[in-house]
């Protein structure tokens, strides 16, 4: 079993942030414009 290196963790965080943050910001914009 391979242990996660800090690079692996960083890459996963970047993917999570890249996919989640745009949705959060879009949701906030929709709420503000309504």
From TrEMBL:
What's the protein here called? Uncharacterized protein
